[in-house]
Design a protein that fits this description.
Elements: H1 2-16, E1 20-21, E2 25-34, E3 37-42, E4 45-51, E5 54-55, H2 64-75, E6 79-87, E7 93-98, H3 105-111, E8 116-117, H4 122-133
Parallel strand pairs: 4-7
Antiparallel strand pairs: 1-6, 2-3, 2-6, 3-4, 5-8, 6-7
Helix pairs in contact: 3-4
Amino acid sequence: MRVLRLFIFLGLFLATSQVVQAESFAGRVQQVTGCDTLRVMNNNRVEVVRLAGLTCPQPGEPFAREAREYAEFLVAGQVVRVKEGVRDRWRRVEGMVYLPDGRALNALLLGAGYARALQSRPDLKMLEDKARIDMKGMWGAPRSRSAY
């Protein structure tokens, strides 16, 4: 009976799992749709890529435009590498995005003060903390204009 319950649980878990491992790939950025979301060409197909480990101000929030424009400045039209991606429940590839020179877009946005690190990524939280201390991006704005 225990074994049967275990198999039922595992079957339900696997059937409802929303994260599927995706392959790493390189492709040209077609569009920056938000600070933390890109459209990247992968084998003649456009993939929606969500930057892992961070969140950015959403449209209509303070610094959303500045954050998107900074991301566009860094990657628009560039060939980037998406590493360690997983697919979320919306079928977006979630991962670290590397510029042609090897720098991580995720880290650059955090370091410039245009993103906030998720609690699940303490490695990226240090970059957010430094941007706060240095009062960069949204962290240098008066509290009434800050996105967070």
